[in-house]
Amino acid sequence: MHGSIYEFETLPIFGELGRRDGARNATQVRRGRAVPLVGIVRNPRSHRNKGIAPEMADCSNILTQTPRTREELHYTLAEFSRRGIDYLVVDGGDGTVRDVLSCGADIFGDEWPTLMVLPKGKTNALAVDLGLPTHWSLTQALAAAHRGRTVSRRPMRLSSADGNGRGILGFVLGTGVFARATEAGQEAHRRGAFNSFAVGLSILAAIVGALFGRAGNVWRASTPTRIVDRHSGRLLPYDGYGRADERFLTFATTFERFPLGARPFGRNPGPGLKLAVIDSPVRWIVALLPAIMFGLQGRFLTRNGAKRYSVNNIDLDIGGAFILDGEAFPAGRYVLDEGPQINFVVP
Q: What dihedral angle (degrees, nearest 10) is formed by the CA atoms of 288, 290, 292, 298?
């Protein structure tokens, strides 16, 4: 996508776009043709799409679109829905996937076409979760689809707490030191590091900064964060050594596999929305962060504010910028739950 899709402050993320396309009311063509109809949303600015022509653009059953604004993306997806595409292809990075899912939520509802992701971004964490190779092509994806190779995932749904407008669908949300590490990752991208290597450099920067930084160092700062289980109405307990209304790290995801082979939620975390929290920047916990990321658990961690949860529906009151699928979003009050089940083509 072009810049306007990513500039959250300028977009009605929680507002309603015009519905002159009649999105959900359109008559859909029946899927299941002998030759599948494929709709592609292509981000020409993604890292590995720059200067590269789209694949199979001359095929009559391949509909390739490059929407430049959120509104254009909405109408593109509505047209794909009206024509009853068999496969929806996202040709870009994690941010492009997030925008497609968010714009398509009120068009496809719970009846999404099967998705194919061509990982052309700088990090492509979703591709790691799905087990996609770095250079996964449209030809390979179509061959895998023909063999019936799919897995299901539910993205997270982030909605405004006041209940106005639509939500945003994505897979990874992080606050505090996670947001600062993501900023470091952007610097790594500018210096030529991508995918898991860039993730590793970002984590290393966060650990070094939080471990050796003095009081007031940005890497040791916490973010005002209030987390409430909507079912029980209970506030998530605080077991740190700072202010009870702040958290050093909050990390939420529906991923089952992670970059670098990390296991932040254990060896077999399973599906569903998962939450990890570190209450305060205790130095020995920061020093153990690599081991925690690769599955270290124990009551000694929980008692000192490093906790993991399986959650479903929570209130998040975040007092600082946070990251959702690689992009910064502003402070505010939100509801986080699971979105629709979507099938993805895998090798």
A: -30
